[in-house]
Specification:
about 130 residues, alpha+beta, 8-stranded antiparallel sheet, about 15% helix, globular, Split_barrel_FMN-bd, Pyridox_Oxase-rel, Pyridoxamine 5'-phosphate oxidase family protein
Length: about 130
């Protein structure tokens, strides 16, 4: 198991993860670009997307990992917490300055801010 500080450090080394949310009462997982800002994972998304709709005030999960398929080693970090949709133009502009862009092109975007309430991770090593 990884401690919180190592989990946060590893979160800062990647740029794409997977977000888990609910769509029509069913679990959905999608790839998402992201950045870290304070205690939030910020994920750009189109304002009309299913991801934006599924994140409004919901508790979400976000996972990032890295694997070496030859050595069969790697790590995985999961974040769980409440989310909010950031659509205020000033706040969106401030988050745009982080340089992260939506996974899919969109004409209007905002950000999902997932507060890191639970952060857990583990190293994967071959037997």
């Amino acid at each position: 198991m990884l401690d919180g500080a190592e989990c946060r450090r590893l979160l800062g080394t990647a740029s794409v993860g997977r977000i888990a949310f609910t769509e029509g009462a069913m679990p959905t997982i999608q790839p998402a670009s992201y950045a870290l800002r304070g205690d939030d994972v910020v994920i750009p998304t189109g304002l009309g997307s299913k991801m934006a709709a599924g994140s409004r005030g919901a508790v979400l999960a976000f996972e990032v990992d890295e694997y070496d398929l030859v050595e069969r080693t790697g790590w995985s970090v999961t974040v769980i917490g409440p989310s909010r949709l950031v659509i205020d133009p000033g706040q969106v502009a401030a988050l745009d300055a982080l340089g992260v862009h939506p996974w899919l092109p969109t004409t209007t975007h905002g950000y999902i801010a997932l507060h890191m309430t639970v952060v857990s991770g583990r190293r994967i090593t071959s037997p």
